[in-house]
Amino acid sequence: MPSKRYKKALELVDAKKLHALNSAVEVLTRFPKAKFNETVELAFRLGMGRGPTAAEREAATEFLAAEPPTSEAAGKSSAKWNDFCQMIFASNAFLFVE
Fold it and tell me: Which of 30, 52, 59, 70 is buried deepest, with most CB atoms within 10 A?
């Protein structure tokens, strides 16, 4: 069940609006720090207008968890999230919105 913080964050997103990359990143920066699963869910909702399937959630978790964040790898962790968002924007679900 989604948390109150997650539900409040979703209020900031207009599911009918398609966001450019800069716009989507700007929206995400206004949100309070979220738990990992909430962040993955929100990225899918912003990019595709829907939550991830079980297979997509598993693939995202594998991709993002491949390198655990450490103080030395903090920049690399951020780069992984950037790559993840780029993958969403390059997906068929984003490119061919019905």
Answer: 52
